[in-house]
Amino acid sequence: MPSGPIYESNLVAKRLAIPDDVFNVEADKTPIYSMLPKTTVEAAMLGSVVLEKFPNVASTGIIDGTAVTTVSYVGRETASVCAQHFRRPWGVSTLAELTSTYGVKDETGHQRAWAMMIVRRMIEQQIGSTDNSAEQSGGTPWTTRGILAWLQTSAHTTHAIPSDFVPASGTRYTGSMKAASFTDSELSALMKAASDAKKGPVDLDLFVGSSAKAVISEMTQADPYRVDGLDTVKNKVMVIDTDGGIARVHISHFVAVDTSTGAATAYSPFSGFGIDRSQWAWEWVKGKAPANTNLPADGSGDRGFVDAVGRLWSKNPLGQISIYTNTNA
């Protein structure tokens, strides 16, 4: 028989110090996808959005008695828009479902809920991507165009946006994302270029990566309440008010990611876009909202998948801004 006191190291069948909770350390929010207006159209994978805008016209007067000899019209153009199929399979074996684990009462329900969140995240990162529109061909699947592609200031090689609706070069910033380089003046110039394209003040939501947000947060802004003659202060900027309009600043970790892996790229921390989220500017067009389908039982356990089909289209790419850079040197 052992002698002396029993020590912790001598104990057997010790209970594990595991809390009855599961903590997810990554954000599952999808703010861009959530805030976009949703609509439903036909299920065709290749569709078109109809675009039109006010033309530049003369405002000279008419000589009294002059007859109408010519007429004019406002034309419309179309931009091709591809839809995309998103899918996340899930599965739980029979024994896994019967095994009790800390923090999870129903493994099948837990994995199914995760699949639903992951599909929404897939859509979110596709929306914020640089991916251009693509039709299925061979091993290439249908791909919907991301915001950073919609707002690029050069012509697209496939499914080109009509030239009248390609954003002006002044609306995209590609320089250094360094506080001394990307100043409030640089941001104001982007907003002015967007306002000039829209022919009116812009009202944007600016989604940017963490490094870009840090730079914007340190911008010098005017304080209208100072009375001591010092009219600028350092503050954490959440709303930018410029001569061109207003931008509300949000941090996003879904900008310019590698859509083939889901990982951030060198551009992700420094890039972003300021979009008009009103009904006339952007829509997520649902072919199928995210939904679960259970697969037939085959003896291996519960299985299924969550999938969705949709496309992002812009009914007016003008009057918005983008930042696309991978450096703060």
Topology:
Blueprint: H1 31-35, E1 38-40, E2 46-51, E3 77-82, E4 84-93, H2 94-98, H3 107-127, H4 147-150, E5 172-173, H5 184-198, E6 202-208, H6 210-217, E7 220-222, E8 232-234, E9 239-242, E10 245-251, E11 272-275, E12 282-294, E13 301-314, E14 321-323
Parallel strand pairs: 1-12, 5-14, 6-10
Antiparallel strand pairs: 2-3, 4-13, 6-11, 7-8, 9-10, 11-14, 12-13
Explain the overall architecture.
The chain is of the alpha+beta class. It has a single domain, classed as phage-related protein like fold. The protein contains 6 helices and 14 strands. The chain has helices at residues 31-35, 94-98, 107-127, 147-150, 184-198, 210-217; strands at residues 38-40, 46-51, 77-82, 84-93, 172-173, 202-208, 220-222, 232-234, 239-242, 245-251, 272-275, 282-294, 301-314, 321-323. It has a 6-stranded mixed β-sheet. It has a 4-stranded mixed β-sheet with strand order 1-12-13-4. The radius of gyration is 26 Å and the shape is elongated. The protein starts with 30 loop residues before the first helix and ends in a 6-residue tail after the last strand. The relative contact order is 0.21. The mean pLDDT is 87.
